Amino acid sequence: xxxAAGRMGRILPSQTIAITQxxxxxxxxxxxxxxLSAGEPDFDTPDFIKKAAIxxxxxxxxxxxxxxxxxxxxxxxxxxxxxDFGLDYRAEEICVxxxxxxxxxxxxxxxxxxxxxxxxxxxxxxxxxxxxQLADGKPVIVPTKAENGFRLTAEQLRAAITPKTRWLxxxxxxxxxxxxxxxxxxxxxTDVLLEFPQIxxxxxxxxxKLTYDGRxxxxxxxxxxxxxxxxxxxxxxxxxxxxxxxxIGFAAAPVALIKxxxxxxxxxTSNTCSIAQAxxxxxxxxxxxxxxxxxxxxxxxxxxxxxxxxxVPGLSCSRPEGAFYVFVSVKDLLGRRLPSGHVLESDEDFxxxxxxxxxxxxxxxxxxxxxxxxxxxYATSTELLEEACRRIRAFCESxx
Length: 400
Ligand code: GLU
What we know:
The chain is of the alpha/beta class. It folds into two domains: 6-44 and 290-397, Alpha-Beta Complex (Aspartate Aminotransferase, domain 1), CATH 3.90.1150; 63-285, Type I PLP-dependent aspartate aminotransferase-like (Major domain) (Aspartate Aminotransferase, domain 2), CATH 3.40.640. The protein has 13 helices and twelve strands. The protein has helices at 15-28, 47-58, 71-85, 99-111, 127-134, 154-160, 183-194, 220-223, 255-266, 274-285, 290-310, 347-358, 382-397; strands at residues 34-35, 94-97, 117-122, 138-143, 165-171, 200-204, 231-236, 249-252, 325-329, 360-361, 363-364, 373-377. The strands form three sheets. A seven-stranded mixed sheet has the order 2-8-7-6-5-3-4, with helices on both faces. Strands 9-12-11 form a three-stranded antiparallel sheet. Strands 1-10 form a two-stranded parallel ribbon. The longest helix has 21 residues, at 290-310. The protein is globular. It starts with 14 loop residues before the first helix and ends with a helix. The mean pLDDT is 97. The structure holds glutamic acid (GLU). Glutamic acid is lined by residues 14, 16-17, 38-39, 125-127, 175.
């Protein structure tokens, strides 16, 4: 007899986490490993944010808060979203959770009935389909095309909708491709959604502050205010403020949905850490200019990786508009042999062999529901990126 409940059979361990942990373990064993697998800024959390957390401890802010977060943080999150995107959220329309992941989990568990469908454009972050399946829903995966810049088109969205569709999950800039929808591209999708009043949209904007070449990221309610009463705007401090370990994500949504998220969270984790909330308050309401400095570093690293890897025979990639990932096609190298004679049949084979042979950890495309690629996270030092690209090149050149 197995200890696991039936629902556990519907999900896999998170591949981004599994590969990152494997790289960490190999490093601890003394292997020379360069981990390009975790979607995690290498920058330290800014000092003024850390200081706010220390001061909160000293003031004794170490007790439970309201499940949805402190009143001051909820107001500050609303103010931040309103200032960044020209929205009009109120504090009672905000719920603070333990990372963006819990926001998505809460939303799916609180709203899906068995068999309800969730449209997910692929490639997509590894956890979306698994969270939907845990919540008894059915992920409807819609593969996007490289020639469309990995963007879902209005025609594809329309074709994926059925009477059972309950949600569309959007993520711009996208993990793992870095694709950022323009206002017009997003409007084309929201126009379709306007025709289907039963469908909600979850817009994962966690990378919205990380866009390059002067581009802006847009969010659903900003381009179509008529969808405000059926949109969950998701954001958080992990990526833009280099605060992954603090575990703070936010939901902004109509009060009726927020009430359900809070009810669920009140019976699971309750409020997220009170000290992390104080830090997040400083992050969203304090000076924002350091983000520009991080952005110029990320942009230079993006260019380094794109230029280095597009020169490797057999690899190809485009220049992403946002986030800190490059999604690299490895299709031309599948079927080739390692010097040992082993044939690389899939992107997963490629990523495994790359780690074994060179110590460079990347995440294979199939984990993001689009095989034939691998994801590089360039949120790591320039020196390590240069060395990793050298090793990837040597590895690809060793194939026959
Ligand atoms: N979102 C990050 C990634 O894609 C963090 C790891 C995770 O939770 O998936 O690598």
